[in-house]
Design a protein that fits this description.
By secondary structure, the chain is an alpha/beta fold. It folds into two domains: 259 residues, Zn peptidases (Aminopeptidase); 112 residues, Alpha-Beta Plaits (2-Layer Sandwich). The chain contains eleven helices and 16 strands. β3, α4 and β4 form a beta-alpha-beta unit. The radius of gyration is 24 Å and the shape is elongated.
Amino acid sequence: MAIVNSIAGFADEMAGWRRHLHMHPELSLECFQTAEFVVQNLKSFGVDEIHAGIATSGVVGVIHGRGDGPVTGLRADMDALPMDEMTGADWASTIPGRMHACGHDGHTSMLLGAAKYLSETRNFRGKVVLIFQPAEETIGGGRMMVEEGIMERFGVEEVYALHTDPYGDLGEFRTCPGPIMAAVDDFVITVKGKGGHAAYPQDCRDPMPCALAIGSALQALVSREVDPLGSIVVSLTMMHGGTAFNIIPESVELGGTVRNLSLEVRDLAERRIAEIVTGQAMSYGVSAELDYRKGYPPTVNHAAQTAFAVEIAREVSNRVVDDLPPEMGAEDFSYMLNARPGCFLFLGQGKGPSVHHPAFDFNDSAAPIGASFFARLIERRHRI
């Protein structure tokens, strides 16, 4: 690993930041203590501009280089997850029902480390825009920050982000040009009939057969309506209806998720699910309503910026994968990549419990590697 020497020198300090954040997790947009911690550190580093309260609790810091030059955004997410922790670590969450199970505490510490180094050295032209965002796990803090105009307000030309990866070896960077993570949509289907005694179905309009038929027909989207290389997942994950063995229910509710990698497939899925719901309801003589909830769009890396990010990753690590198959998880950094060209990369932290697992913990040894990547990216792109 080619970790920047001065960053390696304050690795223990980065671990301290990260563990403090891990002990005090905050959810969604309510990252106020985390944001204050970020602000105080940015002030101590001598960051030139600090803007708080964006997207409720987001923070943007700006570091000025030596003279005019490019403007690059670097992003970290700050929010935790609503779950209990099982790590047993000395720095485990102090708040029941909340934990940093996706590494956002590590992402924040990596960007703080890069900020400290870049503020001290100023070995670059132009400006670095440090983006600390809330609500990645919930309602899209990235979208909100973009909608509040951070790209235009701070003149961001390109934007980059890292995400910790418990499936990769320590220091292994993984990315690809084009789609790297999926769009995520959710749906709720309510089938309504006429309830009654299960012994007399002729006097009822049973919603259950229609609900089962809808669930079966949804799978045809995957197997028969989308190109096998088009990548789509339709998962029916909830089915609620009925209260007793001898009662035909008045209604049945279905819920699930749709994942895909292109806007065309996304639009097809929404249209066909609506048609399936309407058609099956008509054939069974019941009514049905679809509530289709569009979530994050696909996370799509830009080719030139990805090639550049891969070059930087290879300067920092001898483990770089530049043709990672896309994943069907979702990321609200997608909104920032829709607004500006850039790249999203995974950074291996050593193999262990998955993100969103109660035993997950960020590996502090990965933080100096991530901070070095951000620092080298700025020094190369903003070369004096």
